[in-house]
From TrEMBL, chain A:
Residues annotated as domain Fumarate reductase/succinate dehydrogenase flavoprotein-like C-terminal: 463-595
NCBIfam families: sdhA_forward (TIGR01816), sdhA_frdA_Gneg (TIGR01812)
One example GO MF annotation: flavin adenine dinucleotide binding
Active-site residue list: R295 (proton acceptor)
Cofactor note: Flavinylated by SdhE, about 5% flavinylation occurs in the absence of SdhE.
Keyword annotations of the record: Electron transport, FAD, Flavoprotein, Membrane, Oxidoreductase, Transport, Tricarboxylic acid cycle
Enzyme Commission numbers on file: 1.3.5.1
Native organism: Nesterenkonia natronophila
Pathway terms, separated by semicolons: Carbohydrate metabolism; tricarboxylic acid cycle; fumarate from succinate (bacterial route): step 1/1
A Gene Ontology biological process term: anaerobic respiration
Protein's UniProt name: Succinate dehydrogenase flavoprotein subunit
A single Gene Ontology CC term: plasma membrane
UniProtKB/TrEMBL annotation, chain B:
Source species of the chain: Nesterenkonia natronophila
Taxonomic lineage from the root: Bacteria, Bacillati, Actinomycetota, Actinomycetes, Micrococcales
Keyword Oxidoreductase: yes
Pfam family, one: Fer4_10
Family listed: Belongs to the succinate dehydrogenase/fumarate reductase iron-sulfur protein family.
Protein name from the UniProt record: succinate dehydrogenase
């Protein structure tokens, strides 16, 4: 067993991980472990922009941005975190520009800005131009720029190393009031080297999780094949709670039938949605900002149009994104990639034809609970020393129950940077936590079980059935009945998962084996998400319950906290303990959310 | 102020042309997928496998590979991630041409003959369609692919006009998939050659008005393994899934070396 020792180990090399690495790498002995080559990370698929109140093209300030973020999240946002994000957004954009990011420019040579859903002037008066962008490939430019700067700073990468376990220990600890509790501490991670099939232990004083999201729980998704909830599942198995997992964002404009993302920038640049009657239906749902309402509202409106028979196409199961009233040169200049997607994958010419679109699973608002220093919490108050999380895997919570467009690219930069700085600072004074004996045992047994299984269940079949049931029952409309159906199916699939077999028994580049492990993560996280959705008997942001269509602040203005705990049962599911955590309010009282 | 975003206010309601095509009306057809396999754990030599598959009109080569891996033979091994041409994981040789498997629709290939899929050339094959990318990234790192600017850092952004920004726009699109470099006959015979992708990424900084180190990069590419190895065969430009004019970028770097003032 090879054991490596670093002050800081960062898991994941997307935007959050590499932003952390740039900070940590200059302050402490740092390694980045990533299951993909860094430039393959899904940050690169983000399109539209990154909001910051630079006020380069019209009046704006970070307080308005904070308000929009809080309101966009339907008031489930921790307002201290939203303030940090909106305030530090300005430097986050300028940092990237100085690192070399080629933003689009105004005629005066400043960073240009455009409109984006839910971002408004003066607390909702009108749409504001706040999104800094590089055509419709802003995420690509961020990922490339961060990787370039990692090369510049000689950041050490371990490419195609899959982290398969988080090593933690527990110590008895005493609170100020004399009561005792178990304090978790992080000792390192167990990784699997894809090329050789060997396990490596990385011992570290600080571990930063920046592993991204969970889109592959659903069938229709904008997410990459590799977004399989790894980090969330590993934290959860290590006894760390998961927060607000019921809140999943469905992006309104996925290419119909495929889920490939068409940026909200299409609507920011003037594109509109139409039903089969050619009607601009968002005028009915959000009279003030119409097509630029937040994503949860637009996605539900689209699904509602389809339900009421106004869907387009042979199966009447999508609506149209109409760009035909825009100048072709303007479309080509500002939205080149997404128009190419429409041409390549659906053979539709956006200059002259409306593009078939339907909501696609896009983003997990919930995740591993953190505070504004990106420190991971083991319960509502206690921090796990040395453990950090940033980006989609984390729930800080700046997105509440619905994330605004562009705020994810912002989140990874602001909290990725914070995680890198605080992780390195912690490592400069902390001691290594002694590794438990044979920390790889759990992973070794899991791999042996999969390699030697004589079961008859196939990974792809179980995964497809999971994705089908989640699309059917846990998408933009949910009810007790549909959630129960999903839970029953997940229970069945978890049983069958015990009987899966992998065909590839080799050691080199065994992706067959890793897909089997990833399916285990997906099943666990689908269960947590669904239990959390059952518990929340209200509608808020991305979570819409047909049986409880209103927001219920009296009973549910609380974060959901789910723990893996064998002694408990929640919503009929064994092994899960449910708790809540108060939402942090600073300046904004909850109001009705209208646009 | 920049140009207004909306040219004209769209109508609340329009007449849509009779539609019905687009997504939904999907046709099925049969293909034969033929893949060059290699796994040194099983046997020293490479071999070919063939599968007959029923696919849909919207399916890509990646979907066919997944169908084999998920339903038939789990040992078939290839990299992929985003599945829509952005991450650069799945560059491979399809019917003799470098492409991304996730951007190549089956219906656009000749399905009357087997569709032939091989690993990209010029990099060591590790298993099936997976190659060792390290030599490729090594060349990339050597051209100093990061902005170097020694003037005092301004508090706000560095100013750059839209025209200056446009000058290097094409080469910012690179996703480092290696389709260009591994389509280059010079690279096949001389693995020391920097290759088109590294030059594209050097171009992206050489022509960025904010960067100070253009001369250093030009000096690196003036090496015997640098731009002068390029024989202008245009394979790279044809292979680029992002539509970058790779050969033109290489020519611009050559010209810059000849005309620079040192």
């Amino acid at each position: 067993m090879q054991v490596h020792k670093y002050d800081v180990v960062i898991v994941g090399a997307g935007g959050a991980g590499m932003r952390a690495a740039i900070e940590s790498g200059q302050r402490a002995h740092t390694a980045v472990l990533t299951k993909l080559y860094p430039t393959r990370s899904h940050t690169g698929a983000a399109q539209g922009g990154m909001c910051a109140a630079l006020a380069n093209v019209e009046e704006d300030n970070w307080e308005w941005h904070t308000f929009d973020t809080v309101k966009g999240g339907d008031y489930l946002v921790d307002q201290d975190a939203a303030e940090v994000m909106a305030k530090e957004a300005i430097d986050a954009v300028l940092d990237l520009e100085k690192m070399g990011l080629p933003f689009n420019r105004t005629p005066e040579g400043k960073i240009d800005q455009r409109r984006f859903g839910g971002h408004t002037r003066d607390h909702g008066k009108a749409a504001v131009r706040r999104a800094c962008y590089a055509a419709d490939r802003t995420g690509h430019m961020i990922l490339q720029t961060l990787y370039q700067n990692c090369v510049k700073h000689n950041v050490e990468f371990y490419n195609e190393y899959y982290v398969l376990d988080l090593i933690t220990v527990e110590e008895d600890a005493t609170r100020e009031d004399g009561t005792t509790y178990k304090q978790k501490r992080v000792a390192g991670v167990v990784t699997y080297d894809l090329a050789s099939g060997e396990l490596h232990i990385f011992q570290a004083k600080s571990v930063v999780f920046a592993t991204g999201g969970l889109g592959k729980i659903f069938k229709t998704t904008s997410n990459a094949h590799t977004l399989t909830a790894d980090g969330m599942a590993l934290a959860y198995r290590a006894g760390i709670p998961l927060e607000d997992m019921e809140f999943v964002q469905f992006h309104p404009t996925g290419l119909a039938g495929l889920g490939v993302l068409l940026s909200e920038a299409a609507r920011g640049e003037g594109g509109i949605l139409r039903n089969s009657d050619g009607e601009r239906f968002m005028e009915r749902y959000a009279p003030t900002i119409k097509d630029l309402a937040p994503r949860d509202i637009v996605a539900r409106a689209m699904a509602q149009e389809v339900r009421e028979g106004r869907g387009a196409g042979p199966n009447k199961d999508y609506v149209y994104l109409d760009l035909t009233h825009l100048e072709p040169e303007h479309i080509d200049a500002k939205l080149p990639d997404i128009t190419e997607f429409a041409r390549t994958y659906l053979a539709v010419e956006p200059h002259t034809e409306p593009v078939p679109v339907f909501p696609t699973c896009h983003y997990a608002m919930g995740g591993v609970p953190t505070n504004i220093k990106a420190e991971v919490l083991q319960d509502n108050e206690v921090v796990v020393p040395g453990l950090y999380a940033a980006g989609e895997v984390a729930c800080v919570s700046v997105h509440g129950s619905n994330r605004l467009g562009t705020n994810s690219l912002l989140d990874i930069n602001v909290f990725g940077k914070r995680a890198g700085i605080y992780a390195a600072e912690y490592a400069s004074t902390a001691e290594f936590v002694e590794l438990p004996e044979a920390p790889e045992t759990f992973v070794t047994e899991q791999l042996e079980m999969l390699r030697n299984s004589s079961g008859d269940q196939r990974v792809a079949t179980i995964r497809a059935e999971l994705q089908d049931t989640m699309d059917l029952n846990m998408q933009v409309f949910r009810s007790e009945e549909s959630i129960r159906e999903a839970l029953d199916k997940i229970y069945e699939l978890k049983g069958r998962y015990q009987q899966i077999t992998v065909q590839d028994k080799g050691k080199r580049f065994n992706l067959d084996l890793l897909e089997a492990l990833e399916l285990g993560f997906l099943l666990d996280m689908a269960e947590v998400m669904t239990v959390s959705a059952m518990h929340r008997k209200e509608s808020r942001g991305g979570h819409y319950r047909e049986d409880y269509p209103d927001r219920d602040d009296e009973n549910f203005m609380l974060h959901s906290m789910l723990y893996k705990d064998p002694g408990f049962e929640t919503e009929g599911v064994k092994g899960i303990r449910f708790d809540t955590k108060p939402v942090i309010f600073t300046r904004y009282e909850p109001m009705e959310r209208k646009y | 102020m920049s140009t207004p975003t909306v040219e004209k206010e769209p109508a609340s309601k329009i007449d849509l042309a009779e539609s019905g095509d687009g997504a939904g009306a999907v046709q099925q057809f049969d293909i034969t997928l033929k893949v060059r396999r290699y796994d040194p754990e099983r046997t020293e030599d490479a071999w070919w496998d063939e599968w007959n598959l029923t696919m849909f009109g919207t399916d890509r080569v990646l979907d066919a590979l997944h169908k084999v891996k998920w339903d038939v033979d789990g040992t078939l091994t290839f990299r992929r991630s985003c599945a829509h041409g952005i991450c650069g994981s799945d560059a491979m040789r399809i019917n003799g041409r470098n492409r991304l498997a996730c951007k190549t629709l089956l219906k656009d290939l000749d399905t009357s003959k087997p569709i032939i899929v091989e690993a990209i050339k010029g990099l060591p094959v590790e298993k099936d369609l997976i190659v060792d990318m390290e030599p490729f990234f090594q060349s990339y790192r050597e051209i100093m692919p990061f902005m170097i600017n020694s003037s005092p850092t301004p508090t706000a952004e560095r100013v750059q006009s839209p025209e200056e920004r446009q000058r290097f726009d094409d080469t910012t699109k690179c996703i480092l998939c290696a389709a260009c470099t591994s389509s280059c006959p010079v690279f096949w015979t001389d693995g020391q050659y920097f290759g088109p992708a590294a030059i594209v990424n050097a171009h992206r900084f050489i022509f960025d008005s904010r960067d100070d180190a253009g001369d250093m990069r030009l000096e690196i590419l003036n090496d015997r393994e640098g731009v002068w190895r390029c024989r202008t065969t245009f394979n790279c430009t044809e292979a680029c899934p992002r539509g970058i004019e790779v050969t033109k970028a290489i020519q611009e770097v050559k010209t810059a070396i000849l005309t620079r003032s040192l």
